[in-house]
Every structure is written in C-alpha cells, then in structure tokens.
C-alpha cells in the first residue's frame, strides 16, 4: 500500500490548512475520516467474503472426496456381503433365509395392526382422571346453569 510517514502527514496537513482554511478544516477532516472508515469496512467485508467463498470451495472438495470414499467402502462391503451370502447359500442349501427377511414376515404383518395416532380426545382424558383427584382439585363433574349455581351457594336464612 501507500507508505505514509509522519513527515508526509505533516506536509499534507499544512497544505490542507493553507488550501481549505482553518474554518472548514475540522469539517473536512471529519468527512475524510468517515469516508476512510467506510472504505476500510468495505474492504474488510470483501476480504471476509472472499475467504468464506474459498473455505466453501475447500469444504465442497473435501465433501466430494469423503462421499467418494464412502461409496467405495459401501460397494466393497456390498460385494463382500453378496459373496458371503452366496457361499452360505451354497454350503447350507435351501434352508438359508437372509437376515433382512424373516421366515414368517407375511404372518407377522397380518397379526400386528398398523399404528393409529390416538388423537386429542380431551373428554376421554378428563374421564380417565380419578374421582378423588377431581374432588380435591375442584374440577366440576356435572354441568349446572348459572341460576342453579347461585341457588346452590346462596346462604340459608335462619327463621
């Protein structure tokens, strides 16, 4: 970049003082400072974006190599498993069934029903609460009209 020392800065300041004048120099200095700050922030943002894109490219390359290695390992495992299965079938004969397929798979699926979400039946949930808990917690168990509730809790007159 530009090599600006103390002597060069003093020279630039003296020329600015003569050209601009002492009244406008502080305002011009503030403006130049804000513009230089904005320029530095812009340059740092650009540098950070370039670094991020370079790291992203490196990560993509690394991901591709790892995925390729994983595919190679998977293929080798599948070929060795198929070779082992063929060897086992040839040595055991027709009695051999692979691990992924149990012998009674069709019977098992017909016995076990499919899962059904129970839903949100709040009446059923409230009915499952014990009666003693409802009484202690003050849960109303019977519906009453407003007038009936007032009549029920109206104080009795003494005669």
UniProtKB/TrEMBL annotation:
Q: Where is the segment annotated Disordered?
A: 70-104
Q: How does it sit in the membrane?
A: Single-pass membrane protein
What is one Pfam family matched by this protein?
TatA_B_E
What is the annotated localization of this protein?
Cell membrane; Membrane
Q: What is its main location?
A: membrane
Keyword annotations for this protein, in alphabetical order, are: Cell inner membrane, Cell membrane, Membrane, Protein transport, Translocation, Transmembrane, Transmembrane helix, Transport
Under the heading InterPro entries, the entry gives: TatA/B/E (IPR003369), TatB (IPR018448)
Gene3D superfamilies reported for this sequence = 1.20.5.3310
Record's function text? Part of the twin-arginine translocation (Tat) system that transports large folded proteins containing a characteristic twin-arginine motif in their signal peptide across membranes. Together with TatC, TatB is part of a receptor directly interacting with Tat signal peptides. TatB may form an oligomeric binding site that transiently accommodates folded Tat precursor proteins before their translocation.
Per UniProt, subunit arrangement is:
The Tat system comprises two distinct complexes: a TatABC complex, containing multiple copies of TatA, TatB and TatC subunits, and a separate TatA complex, containing only TatA subunits. Substrates initially bind to the TatABC complex, which probably triggers association of the separate TatA complex to form the active translocon.
Family the entry assigns: Belongs to the TatB family.
- The protein's name in its UniProt record: Sec-independent protein translocase protein TatB
What is the organism field in this record? Diaphorobacter limosus
């Amino acid at each position: 970049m530009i090599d600006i020392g103390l002597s060069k800065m003093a020279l630039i300041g003296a020329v600015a003082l003569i050209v601009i004048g002492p009244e406008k120099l502080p305002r011009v200095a503030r403006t130049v400072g804000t513009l230089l700050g904005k320029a530095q922030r812009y340059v740092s943002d650009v540098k950070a974006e370039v670094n991020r894109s370079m790291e992203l490219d490196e990560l993509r390359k690394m991901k591709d190599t790892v995925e390729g290695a994983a595919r190679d390992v998977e293929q080798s495992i599948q070929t060795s498993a198929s070779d082992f299965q063929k060897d086992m079938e040839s040595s055991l004969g027709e009695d051999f069934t692979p691990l992924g397929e149990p012998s009674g798979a069709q019977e098992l699926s017909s016995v076990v029903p499919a899962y059904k979400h129970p839903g949100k039946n709040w009446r059923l949930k409230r009915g499952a609460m014990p009666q003693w808990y409802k009484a202690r917690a003050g849960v109303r168990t019977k519906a009453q009209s407003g007038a009936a509730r007032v009549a029920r809790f109206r104080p009795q007159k003494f005669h």
